[in-house]
Amino acid sequence: MRINSEGSPLRAQDEMAPERLSDEILVIQVARGNSLALEALYDRYASIVLGISLKVIGDQALAEDVLQETFWRLWQSASTYQAERGSFTGWLFRIARNLAIDAYRRRNIRPQAMPGLDGNESVLEQAPDPDVNVVEQVQSVIQNRQVRNALTSLPNVQRQVIEMAYFYGMTRQEIAEATGEALGTIHTRARLALQKLREELNREEFEG
Amino acid sequence: MDKDIEELLPFYALDALTDEERELVEKYLAEHPEARRQIEEMSDTVSALPLSVSPVEPPRRAKKAVMARVVKDAEARARSSKQSQSSRREMRGRDILRTFTLGIATLAIVWVIILNGQITLLRNQISTLNTALEAQSNSLNQVIAKLPQATPSNVITVSLKGTNVQPQAQGQLIADPKSQSAVLVIVGLPPLEAGKTYQVWLIDGGAPVSAGLLTVNENGQAVFIVTSKEAIGSFKSLGISVEPKGGSPQPTGDIVVLSDL
Fold first, then answer.
1. Which domains occur in chain B, in start order?
2. Exposed, middle or buried by CB within 10 Å (0-12, 13-18, 19+), for B21?
3. Tens digit of pLDDT for each residue in B189-207?
């Protein structure tokens, strides 16, 4: 019989290998204090969380801090996750993104990979670790490629607005100021960018 | 449609609004279903953005640090939970004891109240009986006055008590032991149903001797002249039983009064 971190016997559902359970089941287990479930989610998403953090902060040590804090937040507040309000990954990545933006603002460190009009992003070039679950790795690579293709299809000025807003938490006014464009132009670019991105993701048959 | 608010929708989906702007949008969304539909589509698209970032495999120390913190917290939660359960058990035990004690105390109080009620009832009954007895005694004095053969100095009074069958019955036998008659005053005997009668018996150690049939009034009271072929003083006891109408040669029913003379 397997014992969870609480010293309690795992239930029949828990007896399945955690890596085979869905995100939603694992997060419920995390909310019940099952550290094995948290470990499974860590193994599944830590590399993406670190990728997001690193993209936002541009500093490996700080990004690792954000990574740890993200999963600590998950451990502490898993019970607040509501599946009907969105996917688990959307929720988790939002935590990571917000923590990273906070860390970035707190330390006042400029991101190393601030998206430029040329589209060069050094962080995006890093490959996933080959030790992670192969299926998940393949799936992650496919999703990564689909979203990157969709983003790449956007005009650079539109992609820039999207990334400045999402990854760096910049307001419309800050984006307008940073790019030297009128606020109305930023509004238009953001709306068009999301429309185009949606169309491209549909064309790529993206499944998030 | 509010054009200014509509322009904020993409930034709402991108989570890049100020708090004030976010509040404005949320109020707007609450009243505009079409805007909600747009936001759902935009949010769905935005949720793909994190996946545009290439995964970066974290160093092992990061996982160790996370899991060490989590496991430590899980253990603390488990300890806290056990302590809480133990505490709840103790509380439950104390609650049971407290409830039991309160229950006993309540029962005791109720019992005292019932006893007090019964005592009061009995006192009232005794008072009623005493009043009745006093009234009967007055009548008795009149009767005694009419008894030519008895002189007051020879008269004795014997208290009579009801048996367990009729414990509230009590009375007095006023007699000259040498006389063959006496006056019986009795209270506390309920009127009998049709077909039954009280019968008075004098007992000297042998077979009871009938001393007559006794009828009580609606209040359960009676004054009765006991007559016997032998002197009253020759008998050791007096009894009253419930018999079929007309009486019986020997007692056959419940003995409701029995006292030594």
1. 3-48 (no CATH), 147-260 (2.60.40)
2. middle
3. 999 988 899 999 998 877 8
